[in-house]
Amino acid sequence: MNGIIKTLKEQGFGFISREGETKDLFFHSKDLNGVTFEELREGDAVTFEVSQGEKGAFATNVQRA
To answer: Signal peptide position in this chain (predicted)?
Structure first.
């Protein structure tokens, strides 16, 4: 899937906005692939996979597009 980094929190997580979806998708720095959390910027285009956890959907395998 494709999305845009909407927000980054210094605690090591952030949210991705997805076209056609009203709710932003959570991601954690441990779910990044090929990029570090420090390299990401709000507005960066990313690709990712969606997984389901006990708190709902979240992004995994997050990479710069």
So the answer is: none
